[in-house]
Design goal:
Residues 37-94 form the Cupin type-2 domain. The protein is mainly β. It has helices at 23-26, 107-114, 138-147, and strands at residues 9-12, 15-21, 31-38, 45-48, 52-59, 62-66, 69-73, 78-81, 87-91, 95-103, 116-117, 120-121, 124-125, 150-154. It has one domain (4-119, 133-154): Jelly Rolls. It is globular.
Length: 161
Amino acid sequence: MSGLAAQRATWLAGALVEERLGGSATGDALAVLEHTVHLGYNSPMHRHTDDDVTFVVIDGHVELTIDGELHVAGAGSAFWLARRSVHGFVVASPRARFLTLHSPAGSDRFVTEAGWPALIVDGEREPHQPDTVVQRSPDRLAKIAAKYGIEIVGPPPTLRA
């Protein structure tokens, strides 16, 4: 089981990523991450070589490109990405929240290593990434990603729809 006290919150390149269920709680069978992002936030095109990913939009709109096909995803949309599927996304609404479920776990450790811990003040997560966080270099991010079976294969997508 995982409770609020066991969860981690991490800033990763401008996204607030909250670990809802980490590999340490599931024997590395599964990790569940909640992402809170803003308009225009995007991920580089990448693939997971070691895990399958389920992507579930909680609120907002995301343009998700999977193996070259564009999907405009709103609240309630869900996509299963088999390992090695090339994918990336860009946020198409002022704010979006989505879950990524990784089976097996490992991406949760990538987020922790590549990101910056988010502060909790009076039980509330900080509302935005602090100015003191230095943007990580793409080369550094790619090296850390490779340790966890994530290959960066292209630049991030831009808004299309």
